[in-house]
Design a protein that fits this description.
The protein is mostly beta strands. It folds into 2 domains: 131 residues, Sandwich (Jelly Rolls), CATH 2.60.120.10; 110 residues, Jelly Rolls. Helix content is 6%, strand content 50%.
């Protein structure tokens, strides 16, 4: 019998400053004590600004090891470059999925944009067996992301995973997560099957909605909903509808040692990573020819 997941915890995102002075909101990762509950997800940041001074400083060259990062630009442009030789611009609706593995150095620099610039970055942890895998980079254009219209008044952009027969273009990701961008019309309903035992969360982007059959209060924008056990998710749109990200993935259940942009399993591994970065032996893979 199907069991619908109920919200286990609902948290408001918190304003913070990161990079070279970028103002953003952090919904996952601001409280390290909650890491086991969100496993395998480590961090979810949301840049949502109309003032270019809030984001133009960007994220200059910095290292990563032991994680995968997912950058999703809703509105605006972000210039990217990395130590593998990849360069380009992530535009509105585009996605960049980067596996840092053994080590990568990159930069992400938002460009001036008329109106509200909005972009999100998710960090997905890698298991100990894959933390030192070769790094890789995947760029996904907005046009390649399928959009599915569901009965009940929901529209879903499938970035990774599957929904109603639509399969996202981001594949071969170690934890095989689901990443859906969902819009539910006013009073409409979205129902989606999830894998029992997987961590499932929603992050509200716009509007408000009811994120479980037992919910009596609508959850507004800029909140993260962490679901409890079950195999179904249901969301009902509020008076103005609701847009949210739905994320799901298999937890690792491993120790997390996290310092800045590097996430390993032990403090000794962290010390080694930063020592290698200082002495120039951090990168294990050469740039593409």
């Amino acid at each position: 019998m199907n069991r619908t997941r109920e919200p286990q915890q609902i948290l408001a995102s918190r304003p913070t400053v990161d990079g070279a002075g970028v103002r953003l909101r952090r919904s996952v990762g601001h409280d390290r004590g909650l890491i086991p509950r969100f496993d395998p997800f480590l961090l979810l940041d949301d840049i949502h600004a109309s003032d270019p001074d809030d984001y133009l400083a960007g994220f200059p060259w910095h290292p990563h090891r032991g994680i995968e990062t997912v950058t999703y630009v809703l509105r605006g442009e972000v210039a990217h470059g990395d130590s593998l030789g990849n360069q380009g611009v992530i535009g509105s609706g585009d996605v960049q999925w980067m596996t840092a593995g053994s080590g990568i150095v990159h930069q992400e620099m938002p460009r001036r944009f008329p109106g509200v610039m909005r972009g999100l970055q998710l960090w997905v942890n890698l298991p100990a067996s894959h933390k030192m895998m070769p790094p890789r980079y995947r760029s996904v254009t907005a046009a390649s992301v399928p959009e599915c219209r569901l009965d009940g008044g929901a529209v879903v952009r499938v970035i990774a995973g599957r929904c109603n027969g639509c399969e996202g273009p981001v594949a071969e990701i170690v934890r095989k997560p689901e990443y859906l961008d969902v819009e539910v019309s006013p009073g409409g309903e979205f129902t989606h099957a999830t894998v029992p035992g997987h961590t499932v969360l929603a992050y509200t982007l716009e509007g408000e909605g009811l994120f479980g059959p037992g919910s009596s209060r609508e959850t507004p924008a800029d909140h993260v909903v962490l679901y409890g056990p079950g195999d179904l998710v249901t969301v009902r749109g509020g008076a103005g509808g609701v847009r949210f990200l739905l994320l799901a993935g298999a937890p690792l259940g491993e120790p997390v040692a996290w310092r800045g942009p590097i996430v390993m399993n032990t403090e000794e591994e962290l010390d080694l990573a930063f020592r290698e970065y200082r002495n120039g032996t951090f990168l294990k893979s050469s740039p593409h020819p």
